[in-house]
Amino acid sequence: MSDRWSTSRLEAFSDGVFAIAITLLILEISVPDSGFEDLWGGIADQWPSYLAYATSFITIGGMWIAHHGIFRRLASADAMVMSLNILLLMLVSFLPFPTKLMAEAIDITTDAERAAVIFYGLVLLAISVVTSVLWRYAAGHPDLIEPGVGDEEVRAIATLATPRIGFIVAVVLLAFIAPQIAAFGYLLIAVIALFRQHGDTRPAPA
Amino acid sequence: MSDRWSTSRLEAFSDGVFAIAITLLILEISVPDSGFEDLWGGIADQWPSYLAYATSFITIGGMWIAHHGIFRRLASADAMVMSLNILLLMLVSFLPFPTKLMAEAIDITTDAERAAVIFYGLVLLAISVVTSVLWRYAAGHPDLIEPGVGDEEVRAIATLATPRIGFIVAVVLLAFIAPQIAAFGYLLIAVIALFRQHGDTRPAPA
Amino acid sequence: MSDRWSTSRLEAFSDGVFAIAITLLILEISVPDSGFEDLWGGIADQWPSYLAYATSFITIGGMWIAHHGIFRRLASADAMVMSLNILLLMLVSFLPFPTKLMAEAIDITTDAERAAVIFYGLVLLAISVVTSVLWRYAAGHPDLIEPGVGDEEVRAIATLATPRIGFIVAVVLLAFIAPQIAAFGYLLIAVIALFRQHGDTRPAPA
Amino acid sequence: MSDRWSTSRLEAFSDGVFAIAITLLILEISVPDSGFEDLWGGIADQWPSYLAYATSFITIGGMWIAHHGIFRRLASADAMVMSLNILLLMLVSFLPFPTKLMAEAIDITTDAERAAVIFYGLVLLAISVVTSVLWRYAAGHPDLIEPGVGDEEVRAIATLATPRIGFIVAVVLLAFIAPQIAAFGYLLIAVIALFRQHGDTRPAPA
């Protein structure tokens, strides 16, 4: 009796959840009725929504690439991988909520900004930690790993897949003092993480 | 003339519906305007929404795994399987509505809580019953089953795929007395069902 | 130079649109705040929403099966098939709007009911006509059809794929006199169309 | 070490985002409560929403075909292609927001119409420019292109994939004078672009 799962349907289902979560983000952006009197002004006033949209879009896009990078190196999934993956998807699907809060809170009061920006950062942190735990668990079970994946590559992915836990903590701490600057910090982390993923390539078979 | 359908497109379509239903759940969570005055308090006040979100996310995730477990054992689908599957998807897609009701009703009045929690349980019950009927129907038609699937495995899946009808009934009854505790009961059932699915593995071909 | 397209990506994209449209329907159902004072009553009062939900869910489910039945018989798609398919998807994606209108209008005034139920029927009619035109166009271009599909099968699908245009017209006319009964008529048409699709099976290769 | 990505998962993920963005458009259309007193009038009053819906649906549908046309000619994706693709998806997913603004602004004031129609056009322009840059970048890197794709075909796609940047600029300029006419101009551009995509066919291997 095998207690292993094929990863192909797991990946297809996860891809669906990532694609939907990333596309739903736009539903939260709108201009209030009063904004139509001076619509260019009304559009400009929504800048925190655009910032939050871009940040979460690039974050989820980067997470999708990281997820893809992990699962194409797995030969199969066991019960722990399945559970960690459901937890990861639950956190990624949750991100539109703190995204909306951050977009609404910016420019209300500094207290609301601080709470929303820190809450957003804590969800980012949870996503990063679960991703990291998922890969480290798999790395510790060589029977789950695709045959061609060497030790060095496993370590390289561990570094890549760990999406900047330290940077996120630093930005969360910054949010206590300057929440608006911290909000831009998340965007910067997302862009850097996206570009770093580009380095994640499997060596072509010789 | 064959009256059989290939299951691959059926599975892909069903996967899409599961992935969308699970990701839409977040759209129902928001903090009212008054919550932004004390945003940490406003975020904390939404705890019934987080409970309902986690419960429905894990329930649908577990249902997806159960659905996958059933359909990869089917060689083909007949008219009855098609109809039961549409009915099952209709109930799974319906779950975001009682999820929203439960999240809104908790902490309003005990009467509202009781109605919402029982209504949620009845939808869970309907999902479980239809899933069970679907598998029992297939199990009774050996020509629908993949050649390699033995009688013992069919019975094991019948047990696994029956998602705790008795437990759901018990929690629904509990909801008459203590609806808030019953709401946590659904979460517990979902988590247990998810872990039990992990045992659903086809023996590797010898 | 070929002016033909492979149908596989067309089908995958169409499947996505069908799956999303069918799952979005639930977002329109909610109980107003006043309904929480007597929540069982509030839930019961939403019956027009459940009727509209079930009707549109089964209609789109049946349309998806019909769409699948058409495209698996096409060897390739030309410019006309592409355009008719985009038009068909646009109409299917539009259905959640008249669904919402019908759910809201029932039990307001008979005038509003009549308008909403007729409008819903006209959209159904447009979907049926475009589906029928799509298949008849393909049937008239033998080079688009899969080699193994015989004349008799083409005619049988023409009958199946024409989703009851006469019945829809009859129910739309009925809506002028008795709109609520006509609303149930659409549900009946959807259920019958779903079961008739079950007869759509390609003969297995001999 | 290769720094190349397979394009198949990239395409599947992009298809998901296109399918979701196109189907979400309908969520923004509704008839206000006051419209139910004379529901045919209320439905008719929503014409700007139908115009915006059809325009964005056909635009995204055409973009999906163009995207498909580009990626099936790519043998692999490098870091730049990945980044440009994420940027393109972010802009396509953003389109429902200016769609909603345009639908709401038409028939409010000419100032609001002008702002909304120009804003919509600027997003269209950004989508077209990024698509064009993406293909031109790939065209300049022969190692990314599928072996069978000739120079002439690369140039033909460059022309096709450039979705009428000049026409969009002209309509944006028209919007300064006559925004309602310009809104219909976008629909015309979308329909023409859709039909021009039909000419995008790879020569069958001889």
Summary of the model, kept short:
The structure is a homotetramer of 206-residue chains. Chain A is mainly α and 206 residues long.
How would you describe the overall organization of this protein?
4 copies of one chain form a homotetramer. With 206 residues, chain A is an all-alpha fold. In chain A, 72% of the residues lie in helices and 0% in strands. At the C-D interface, α1, α4, α5 and α6 of C face α1, α2, α3 and α9 of D.
**Which runs of chain A of at least 5 residues are low in confidence (pLDDT < 50)?**
202-206
Q: What structural class should be given to the helix and strand makeup of chain A?
A: mainly alpha
Distance separating the two termini of chain A: 35 Å
Largest inter-chain contact set: C-D, 36 and 39 residues
Helix percent band of chain A: over 70%
Topology of chain A as a string of helices (H) and strands (E): HHHHHHHHH
Instruction: Note the total helix count of chain A.
Output: 9
**General shape of chain A:** elongated
Characterize the quaternary organization of these chains: homotetramer
Q: How many DSSP E strands of chain A? A: 0
- Computed over alpha carbons, the radius of gyration of chain A is 19 Å
Biggest β-sheet description of chain A: none
Strand-residue proportion of chain A: under 5%
Mean pLDDT of chain A: 87
